Amino acid sequence: MSTLRRRWSLLWMFSPALVLAAIATSSQVSSWARASDGDLFTRIDRYIQQEMDNSHIPGIAIAILKGGDVVHRQGFGHDGHGRGITPETPFPIGSLTKSFTALATRQLAEAGRISLDDPVQQYLPWFQVADVDASSRITVRHLLNQTSGLSRASGIEPVIEESQASLQEIVRDLKNTPLNRPVGQSYEYSNLNFAVLGLLVETVSGQPWTTYIERHVFAPIGMSDSYSTFDAAREAGMTAVHQYWFGVPVRTALAYLPGLASTGYLASSADDMASYLAVYLSKGMARDTRLLSAAGIEEMLAPSTDEVTVRRLSTSFTARYGEGWLVGSFGGARDARWHLGDLPSFTAWMILLPDSDQAVVLLTNIGNPAEVGGGNSVLSRLPQGVVRLLRNEPPPSGVTVTRFYAIFDAIVVGILGTLMWLMVSLMRSRPDLTASPDGGPWFPVARTATPVVVGLGVAALLLLGAPMITLLSWNAMWRFMPDLTLVILAISALCAGCGVVRAGQLARWFTRG
Questions:
Q1: Are 164 and 136 in contact (CB under 8 A)?
Q2: CA distance 485 to 326
Q3: Can you tell me whether residue 189 is helix, strand or coil?
Q4: Which residues contact 464 (CB under 8 A, 6 or more apart)?
Q5: For residues 114 and 103, is the Cβ–Cβ distance under 8 A?
Q6: Which of 148, 227, 365, 506 could bridge to 232 as Cys pair (CB 3.0-4.6 Å)?
Q7: Tens digit of pLDDT for each residue in 462-500?
Q8: CA-to-CA distance for 282 and 79, rounded, in angstroms?
Q9: What is the pLDDT of residues 367-416, one digit of tens each?
Q10: Cβ neighbours of residue 357 under 8 Å, at least 6 residues apart?
């Protein structure tokens, strides 16, 4: 599989219970269409609260801009530490970080310290991928546009492994990384592109990437609730993050990966992200300081690649890539600039709407990789619903997490209950191998030994097949999808138990015989 999202999807599809859930689950018709009274922002808040309640989302922060000014800001729910979410609460923002790295690269280009069409080796002479010839042809612009040929799968491997390698170690390890398409040919999203850009920023500026972002982006914008490390963010009250366990949100750990900091490890608040988006609506101005020229902002937001259709959180998006931004339709807006940042424990969205001079940031302290049956569709539905409401259109409706897990949990209970009943029945039965029906003298043995073959075979298939199909280790499966991993282990144990019980009975029968 080429992406972590597809791996998570396969992991869900691996469970027959979830396939049935996908068939049984149908889209819910939202009652929102009947709730059209009140002013716009009241309706938006009601919509968000309704979706939160229906999907047990712990906390959300939102900010909406018009013409560079914040016109609405709100926090909903709690942060997992007993505090209410506010617009000042820091959240991890994931891959929204890429636009910060792109902005830093553009700043250095406008200062004359980087040329976007120079080969990367101009600044990092040792830079190399597995294809030595291709290494010399990868330019800074290829990295910004995600057209270097580096794959999404290669960029996700360090995330799966929770690598603690440094930024330089991550980039130096690319000498063993193959490209999966010719340099400059077409777009493919990869964290590795922005890891290399992070090291370029460090090398050219003479400052750590974290320091550069703090001094040249956070400070001039006034982003006082934004942090370049999770340790600093946690000290300042960053929200806890959550995963669903059978539909119940549970706090979980979130690792900081230093080698991928420039690709997805900033933390920020809805207020601060609103100030950041205002820079783009204001053509590069932050308060009284120019961060980037109007032309530079325009080039960052311009589509620069082929058009692709990607599936994110149970929704298909057709877009082209700019520099840290996707360009395409979003939530009823035909010409939006947007980006998603997510892991199984949080979701972050930022959207620019050039035609209406508006912007939206929506931060959520829970994630969900369950693509089957639209189990995580609420997390992409929320920002699209806000955009639709801003355009006086009804928000979309769909499957809620509560409904999805009600079906999933019921099927899981049914499967586990049936297996437990079979095991108890086997324990109470006594195999009789004395009869010799028309099938021959060995037919009773084969028939009686069937639970051994089937039980142990299914257990082996699950235990060996899940990591092979998903390309995830058991440790990674546990981190990314703990409830489904627990179900797979429980089904495997019960199947193996049925086989062991019958094998023991057969052994005792033959011993007595």
A1: no
A2: 33
A3: coil
A4: none
A5: no
A6: 227
A7: 888 888 877 778 888 888 888 989 999 999 999 888 888
A8: 32
A9: 998 788 888 999 999 999 999 999 999 999 999 999 999 999 999 999 99
A10: 66, 67, 68, 281
Question: What tokens were used for 74?
Answer: 């709100």
Measure CA 200 to chain center. 26
Query: 183 phi and psi, to 5 degrees?
Result: -60, 130
Closest CA to 181 of 131, 128, 119: 131
Q: Which pair of structure tokens corresponds to residue 55?
A: 């999907």
| Burial 467-491, CB ≥16 within 10 A → b, else e | eeebbbeeebbebbbbbbbebbbeb
Given a cut of 60, whether residue 442 has pLDDT beyond it is: no
Q: What is the percentage of the chain residues whose pLDDT exceeds 90?
A: 73
Buried/exposed code over 339-370 (b: 16+ C-beta within 10 A; e: otherwise): bbbbbbbbbbbbbbbeeeebbbbbbbbbbbbb
| Residue 348 near residue 354, CB atoms below 8 Å | no
Contact between residue 89 and residue 273 where contact means Cβ atoms under 8 Å apart: no
Query: CB of 395 within 8 A of CB of 30?
Result: yes
Phi-psi region of 354 (alpha: psi -120 to 50; beta: other; left: phi over 0): alpha
- Output the average pLDDT for the chain: 89
H/E segment holding residue 51: helix 40-55
* pTM, rounded to two decimals: 0.88
Instruction: Quote the tokens at residue 31.
Output: 């009652």
